[in-house]
Amino acid sequence: MDGLRAIPSVDRLLTALGPQGIPRPLVVSIVRAHLDEVRTREVVPDEDTLLGELREAMRRRRSKRLQPVINGTGIVIHTNLGRAPLAGAVARAVADLAAKYTNLEFDLESGERGGRAAYVEEILALLCESESATAVNNCAAALVLILRQFARSKPEVIISRGELVQIGGGFRIPEILETSGATLREVGTTNRTTARDYAEAISDRTGLILKVHQSNFRMSGFVESATVAELGSIAKERGIPLAVDLGSGAIVRTERIAGLEEHEPTPAEVLREGADLVCFSGDKLFGGPQSGMIAGRRALIQQVKGHPLFRAFRCDKLILGALQASLELCLGAGDFPALPVIQMLRAPLEDLRQRADRLVAGLQGAKGVLRVVESRAETGGGALPERSLDSIAIEILPKNKKVNEFAREVRLGTPPVIGYISDGAFRVDLRTVPAEQDAELAGVLKVALEIRTRIPSPL
Ligand SMILES: *Cc1c(COP(=O)(O)O)cnc(C)c1O
């Protein structure tokens, strides 16, 4: 009981803590919860220790705020790090729209209510070389909508057993199909599915043929799958729509990117080959905001947009603004638009090496050994899983702390730096760090490596 009396009041602790960079009610709630925990201890800590614990608790909470980070993982499309960063011009366009009223559903010509997203849909269709297109919240939503709409009266959806894949955390194609009210009609085997397997499975209960990009894995050896062209002609003959979930949806010719040298099918190509509808993510290889694009035949897009769920899955004005600006960048460019994802994938090795040399040269006096090393970067986001790009990393073997402690310290830096540990050393891959972040990166590394910045001496 003596110990309990020694616990300082909440008010006293709040005054001692001062502003914490998070809302005061949250600070109060953290202090209260911490004191509840302290009351269960046998020995109550003295006030300084208690304040230290509380500052640590505040710091932990602050680190959970959504904030910009430096991606040193070498994985360009990293779902945990928010996938594609937007181009500067795109972010500025969004900021302008965000703070003002817009003509979102207002026709400036007539002064009356206008169609939402009509312009975005038009330029998306141009990019996909399709009759029509639309965008929803993400590719998962696009897939659910397509399934819901086309399995409405005829519930069976034909899909190859080789494409019943799991994409990222908790997104499993068979589960999506089932929650969409569709009945799975699996055909073929894990490694081999022929066009005939599909043709034989078609009945008067078939609402859709679905082909799903395997995204994050590849099979090799005794494998076969039906091509879009084959499925397209079966679909046409039997009067059943063919939808292709492309996942990443490259719009550039990935085979022309040094190191990738593998062709990722584009929406336009897949539609040309015979798909009636395609869907793909907006924030993977396309390099835009989180969204799910659907492109294809006009009548089918109209049906998808007519489904009651479309309203629940539609994009908000900020996303539409980001999409519009990203699409305009794509349509205005030659082969490779000025989108960060594409620029990072294409950054010449020599540029990365020069930046790394400069960074390491600026980190003299570090408590650790620094080297510029060759590394491997990846596309991520389920695209081209077998391809890795030559890259350059800064490798750090800290002397003042263990490598995992070092990694944690820079993760909690300002801004946070996310690297990886390879062979007992910490690495920051420069392919995924935009050059504009070099100075901030150097700043965080300096603190962690205990490099004393010389205070400029007065003249
Ligand atoms: C990533 C992916 C999805 C999900 O896309 P989100 O935009 O994250 O919803 C769906 N299908 C495939 C094949 C994918 O690769």
Characterization of the model:
There is one protein chain. The chain is an alpha/beta fold. Helices cover 39% and strands 18% of the residues. The protein is built from 18 helices and 16 strands. The protein has helices at residues 2-5, 10-17, 24-39, 47-62, 88-98, 118-128, 139-150, 173-179, 195-201, 228-238, 267-273, 298-306, 308-313, 317-332, 340-346, 349-361, 403-411, 438-448; strands at residues 70-71, 75-77, 106-107, 112-113, 132-136, 156-160, 183-187, 206-212, 242-247, 277-281, 292-296, 368-380, 388-398, 417-418, 420-422, 425-429. It has a 7-stranded mixed β-sheet with strand order 5-11-10-9-8-6-7, sandwiched between helices. A 5-stranded mixed β-sheet has the order 2-12-13-16-15. α8 (173-179) links the parallel β6 and β7 (183-187). The radius of gyration is 27 Å and the shape is globular. 40% of the residues are buried. The structure holds pyridoxal-5'-phosphate.
**What radius of gyration results from the CA coordinates?**
27 Å
Please summarize the sheet with the most strands. 7 strands, mixed
Structural class by SSE content:
alpha/beta
Calculate the mean pLDDT score and round it: 94
What's the arrangement of strands in the largest beta sheet? 5-11-10-9-8-6-7
Helix content: 25-40%
Global morphology: globular
Fill in the keyword field for this structure.
16 strands, seven-stranded mixed beta sheet, 39% helix, single chain, binds pyridoxal-5'-phosphate, 459 residues, alpha/beta
Briefly, what is this?
This protein is an alpha/beta fold. 39% of the residues lie in helices and 18% in strands.
